């Protein structure tokens, strides 16, 4: 979105409106007291149109699913709503009643579900890529490796030539502070963290 002004035909520029629509629909589904089939169908369609123009849309959706799952684990999202949103990840959610039957503590339940999610996304993706020899998105991992270690190849050198893939400039936080964006975000972030810690502590205390 920040690069649209000088490079209009970017793939993500075409996906961005559908991402906004998709986020709106997810928020609507989470806030609604009753699930409607029309909202779920609209969410499915917006997901498809978001992913079609941009091959990196999967990483945005992975981040969204991870955030929703973390919020579900803490107890802010109803299991029915999360199951509808990420039906493909239903295996982990369906196992919760079985864990509850064997009197697993709430803390242990958080750890178990977190480990299942880690295995189901990161480790399983790595194993399937190795088994089937899939290397279409290998340059993403190589790019991250090159930013923190001394790894270099043609793709990483080509990407890191662009300023967009460089580390954030020192002036950027200053600009965000002058516009009051950064202080507001920090205040909201601290409030959210305090609320989560308070609720988690209350659950563990019981």
UniProtKB/TrEMBL annotation:
**Any idea where this protein resides?**
Membrane
Question: Origin, by domain of life?
Answer: Eukaryota
Keyword Membrane tagged: yes
Alphabetical keyword list: Glycosyltransferase, Membrane, Transferase, Transmembrane, Transmembrane helix
For this record, the Gene Ontology CC terms, alphabetical, are: membrane
- Classification via PANTHER family: C-MANNOSYLTRANSFERASE DPY19L1-RELATED, DPY-19-LIKE 1, LIKE (H. SAPIENS)
* UniProt name for this protein: DPY19L1 isoform 7
